[in-house]
Design goal:
392 residues; alpha+beta; 21 strands
């Protein structure tokens, strides 16, 4: 694994505009960064990222089946009591899921280490699936990358295939929603609607704040149409604390991601996985935080924190690093395994699972060891002398 400098495509901003990639620059700072790329060997991708992703995903799915049967585990995950039966029922009905992202610390040596699961509202999807593949093709065509350069990236094809499978499982009509003012979230939702359309599954767009509630407790669109299925790029744990969300269990709406993903989007799954798979090479030691002082060599994360907020790191050398944010409440401790610096940046590998299939990855790079919402997306390529497998 190497970080390699490369010339930007002269026309990449025009390419972004053509494809609807409007959030490549956020608050005047680059989010999409193609001044460099991360180079991997095929062995690194297959053995260190793809295979562990599939194994960890299966372990996580097994854990859901255990959690929904246990009030004690629901308590440990701080899942509100009023929603527990609803969540358990969604799992027992095997309500279908679409996608998720596993975040790894990896520097090309040793096993990748799982930082967390993003299984409810994972973002950075369009740029991982579509735009970095377009970058690869353009750079090969301009002879800046060898013609056999490849990418761990079958995300788009997997999404289209998965939507085809979901078409018979989602009660109509289907709506796609996100916060109306979030350009990034709206871009992700527009991309997913397009993937669904390519699979023959039609879905309407609606801002999540425009969803109504009928007198009999059904979710409705602006024209009072009752929503049958709802893709919502909005944290389920936040919905459950809002007055609107109190109607979820009796609304009859089928969510995508389903209600049972509230378990896997919770950082409490990390100590639960460690307890059940102690010593697994891709897991970091983890425990539920008891509120005492954080010892050296550990990281504290709130159960419901997102985008690197409210993370406290006490490293083995005695140094501290903390990030601000709005998250409080119960937390976990995870053994510190700091990201490795590459040319001043700290890359975090996001490995995508669509349905139950590990199918691609994206890299976000921050200036610090805590990957925040301001991290840049940097493309990757598989560079081997002799190609043996092609992801298309």
């Amino acid at each position: 694994m190497k970080r390699v400098r490369i010339d930007e495509r002269s026309q990449w901003r025009a390419r972004a505009a053509e494809s609807g990639f409007r959030f490549h620059t956020i608050d005047g700072l680059p989010y999409w960064d193609e001044t460099a790329y991360y180079a991997f060997t095929l062995r690194q991708i297959e053995q260190d990222i793809e295979d562990p992703s599939a194994e960890l995903h299966a372990m996580a799915m097994d854990l859901v089946d255990e959690v929904v049967r246990s009030e004690q585990l629901m308590d440990q995950l701080a899942i509100p009591a009023a929603f527990r039966d609803w969540i358990a029922d969604s799992w027992r009905r095997r309500e279908p899921h679409l996608y998720g992202r596993l975040d790894f610390a990896y520097d090309g040596t040793g096993p990748a280490k799982l930082y967390e699961l993003n299984y409810d509202t994972p973002t950075s999807l369009f740029e991982a699936s579509f735009f970095q593949w377009q970058w690869l093709e353009d750079q090969r065509n301009q002879n800046r990358l060898p013609p056999h350069a490849d990418q761990f990236n079958a995300i788009h094809e997997a999404l289209v295939e998965r939507f085809g499978q979901l078409s018979a499982q989602l009660p109509p009509p289907l709506y796609f929603s996100a916060v109306g003012a979030s350009e990034e979230d709206q871009g992700t939702v527009a991309y997913l609607r397009d993937c669904a359309a390519q699979a023959g599954l039609r879905g309407e767009a609606i801002a999540i704040e425009d969803i109504g509630l009928s007198e009999d407790g059904r979710f409705t669109a602006l024209d009072d149409t009752v929503i049958g299925s709802l893709f919502k790029l909005y944290p389920l744990e936040d919905l459950m604390t809002e007055s609107f969300g109190q109607a979820l269990p009796g609304s009859g709406v089928q969510l995508l991601e389903p209600a049972w993903k509230a378990i896997l989007s919770n950082k409490g799954v990390l100590p639960l996985l460690w307890q059940r798979h102690h010593g697994h090479p891709n897991l970091l030691a983890a425990a539920f935080d008891d509120g005492s002082a954080l010892p050296a060599g550990w990281v504290r994360k709130p159960l419901f924190s997102r985008e690197g907020a409210n993370v406290a790191m006490h490293l083995a050398d005695g140094s501290w690093q903390e990030s601000e944010g709005p998250y409080t409440g119960p937390a976990i401790r995870q053994a510190a395994h700091p990201l490795t610096a590459f040319d001043g940046g700290y890359p975090l590998v996001g490995s995508w699972v669509v349905g139950d299939h590990a199918c691609g990855m994206g890299i976000r790079e921050d200036n610090s060891r805590i990957t925040r919402d301001s991290a840049r997306f940097v493309p990757h390529a598989i560079i081997d002398e002799v190609p043996t497998r092609i992801y298309v």
